User: Fold RNA polymerase from Sutcliffiella horikoshii.
Amino acid sequence: MKILKSWFKPSASGPTFESLIKNEQEKLYKIAFAYVKNEQDALDVVQEAVINAYKAFPKLENPQYFSTWMTRILINTAINELRRKKKITFLDIEKHHEQSVKETHLSIHKLDLEEVLERLKPEQRSLLMMRFTYGYSIKEMAQIFEKPEGTIKSQLHRTLAQVKAELEEGGEKYGEA
Assistant:
């Protein structure tokens, strides 16, 4: 019990787990939600990731890397959850019937992008989200994925090329505007 209490009390050796996790909670939820696409599942993933991180916290040598360390734990937890559930997303038919024709045409491009992103491998989706949604640098991403910066750059480039190619095929699917 002394060990648990020491993780929540400020110490001379560095910040506490509680103070570090408070700074990350909103970002963690957004990342989890981007993976599982459901509020309750996202909360479950964050909770499981925080528990795993809490157990491993004494092994973290440098608190300066807490954010990247925690993000990696969260991503792994989210991917494991997706594998476990083999999640299928159902559409709410009534909600879609209420949209006007104009809104439907405007949203086709958004649907195309969402569809393309769904077909990406989890690691490819992670690369795009971390770079363009959360603003991680290539260096930070390399630390999170434990890969060289050059590898991250080439994977990001290939993923963007794949997304671009699939989006360019969209006109053939729906007809030219």
In short: The radius of gyration is 20 Å. DSSP finds ten helices and no strands in the chain. The chain has a mean pLDDT of 77.
